[in-house]
Every structure is written in structure tokens, then in C-alpha cells.
Write a structure and sequence with these properties.
Layout (H helix, E strand, L loop, with lengths): L1 E7 L4 E11 L2 E12 L3 H8 L4 H21 L3 E6 L1 H5 L3 H12 L3 E3 L2 H12 L9 E6 L4 E6 L5 E6 L3 H6 L4 H15 L6 E5 L1 H10 L6 E3 H12 L3 H6 L5 H4 L2 H14 L4 E3 L5 H13 L7
Parallel strand pairs: 1-4, 4-5, 6-9, 9-11
Antiparallel strand pairs: 1-2, 2-3, 6-7, 7-8, 10-11
Helix pairs in contact: 5-13, 8-12, 9-12
Length: about 300
């Protein structure tokens, strides 16, 4: 069975197709296609409060292409989610409805809590049942945090702090205060919990620091790398460190969010599984359509 996911983020749009198999009773996924298109919806929303006509035209063209890919890959089920940019845009619901009507695609604008739940569906396999973990997902418009306690209980929250907001100068100081208070309150009984990071920026930082998947990156190493990048010109970030332009300008603000939360929670290391919202969307489709089936 082939499944598709589209993540409409604030800094980019991500398209993913997975083939799903059941082998000896175990569900296995094989990635068939992944496309990341740097359409920065957050630039419009966090400065003017709505998506411009020019950006909407680009978004529609992009979805026309994705619709063709869905047809060519013979996708059986799909999930399309829009996060902070569209959910905060004055015309976000209208644009989602126009895409749905014109292309016969179901576009869902999700809440921050729903976003956190979907991302957690993808990362839960990367740590032990009773392990203390602080999961941090940093996007262009929002940061989602989930704290996993030894008891098995979890606490989650979403904050209007993100990399594109930072670039546009629209992050509210009081939101940072709320974030710090929430992290300190929900981690005060934890003993040096493991941080787990998701999002394109922490993936890139992990690539720069280590190529070994599953390696826990120390807080000190992450801070040192961020300081090095911050001291590097934008041109060198692009041509020497091999970053996309829309990654080069947001990677330091993203890194500062990760390190701030790690510091407040007394976390000494971060694991980067290189999964995210799109993967949680795929696993949600697996839960809905495949678990318990006789798919071979």
C-alpha cells in the first residue's frame, strides 16, 4: 500500500510518499519520494497577517504538482496538514478550502496540540518506555514540546516561537517567558532528561556535528557548533557548509531555541532521530488503514 503526506509549514512545504509492507507480522516503510519546496508562508503571515495573492498562486501551483504525483504513485490514502502559518493567517481557511475544492484534496489546518501529537507518533519508537525525555520540535512559526515522565505520563504544549517569526521580528517576549516557565515547571522533578530534537534545523545541525544516526549530541557540542555557525557569513554557510539559503538564515535562531530549552530542563544531550510531522502523518495513516490488515 502506498501512502502520501504533505506538511504545509511556515518555512517550507514537504511532500512524502511511503510504500508500506507487512513482513512476518511487522510493519515496514520504504520511502519512495521526498520533496521539500522552500515556500515561506510565514513571511507573509507573520508580517501582514495573511497570505498574499502571489504566494497563494505559488502554493496552488505546487499542489497541482503534488496532485499529479499522487496520481502517478497511485497513492491509496493521504494526509495533508497545515500548521502555524495557515492557522494564523486571516485567509488561511479560505485558501485551504480553495485548494480542496479545485483539486479535490482534503487539506486540514491543525492545532498546535494536534501537531505535537502527530510528531510524537513518529518519535515514540526512539526511546525506552520509562525514559525521561523532553521532545522539542522547532518550526518556522511554532515550537511544540512534550515531556515524557518515568511514570509514563506526558505533558505537551505549543508556543508561538519559531525561526521565521524570529527573522520577521514578531516573537513576543512574553511568549518566551511562558515557554521558560512551562519547561521549568514540567521538568523540575526530572534528573538530566534526554532531549529529543525534530525539525529540519536540528537535522542539519546533527549532520554538521556527526554523520552517525542515533548518536546523542552533547549540549556543549551543540552550543559550540552554533557559535561557529553564527560567526560564519551567510555566503559561507551556503557554499562551504552546504546549506540551502532558507536554512542558512534560520538555523541559528532554531538552535538557540533548542539550547535554551535544554538549559532550562537540565538536559546534557540531544538525540536527533531525523523524523518529523510528515512521518507522524504517515504512521497515523498506518494506524488508521493498515494495522490489523493482511497487507503483504
Amino acid at each position: 500500500m502506498k501512502l502520501g503526506a504533505i506538511d504545509i509549514g511556515s518555512n517550507a512545504i514537504r511532500f512524502q510518499v511511503e510504500n508500506v509492507f507487512i513482513v512476518d507480522g511487522e510493519i515496514r516503510l520504504k520511502k519512495l519520494e521526498f520533496i521539500r519546496f522552500p515556500l515561506r508562508l510565514g513571511h507573509d503571515v507573520f508580517t501582514s497577517g495573511k497570505i498574499s495573492m502571489e504566494t497563494e498562486i505559488k502554493l496552488l501551483k505546487l499542489f497541482e504538482s503534488f496532485k499529479i504525483f499522487f496520481d502517478l504513485f497511485e497513492i491509496e490514502h493521504y494526509f495533508i496538514c497545515a500548521t502555524s502559518a495557515l492557522r494564523e493567517a486571516e485567509n488561511g481557511e479560505e485558501i485551504a478550502m480553495r485548494i480542496s475544492k479545485k483539486l479535490d484534496l482534503d487539506v486540514k489546518i491543525i492545532t498546535g496540540e494536534e501537531e505535537a501529537w502527530l510528531i510524537n507518533r513518529a518519535v515514540r519508537q526512539f526511546f525506552k518506555e520509562n525514559e525521561e525525555v523532553v521532545h522539542i520540535d522547532v518550526g518556522g512559526g511554532s515550537t511544540e514540546i512534550t515531556v515524557y515522565l518515568k511514570s509514563g505520563k506526558t505533558n505537551s504544549s505549543s508556543f508561538r516561537i519559531g525561526t521565521v517569526r524570529n527573522l520577521e521580528g514578531t516573537e513576543a517576549p512574553e511568549e518566551w517567558e511562558k515557554l521558560e516557565k512551562w519547561v521549568r515547571r514540567n521538568t523540575k522533578k526530572m534528573d538530566a532528561p534526554l532531549a529529543l530534537g525534530t525539525g529540519g534545523n536540528i537535522n542539519k545541525l546533527s549532520d554538521i556535528i556527526t554523520q552517525t544516526k542515533g548518536t546523542v549530541i552533547s549540549f556543549k557540542k551543540l552550543k559550540k557548533t552554533l557559535n561557529l555557525i553564527e560567526a560564519t557569513s551567510m555566503e559561507d554557510r551556503i557554499f562551504k557548509m552546504m546549506m540551502n539559503p532558507d536554512r542558512a538564515d534560520v538555523i541559528v535562531p532554531a538552535g538557540r531555541i533548542f539550547t535554551s530549552i535544554m538549559e532550562w530542563s537540565n538536559s546534557t544531550g540531544i538525540l536527533v532521530p531525523r523524523v518529523g510531522l510528515k512521518d507522524g502523518m504517515i504512521w497515523t495513516l498506518v494506524d488508521r488503514y493498515i494495522k490489523g490488515s493482511k497487507l503483504k
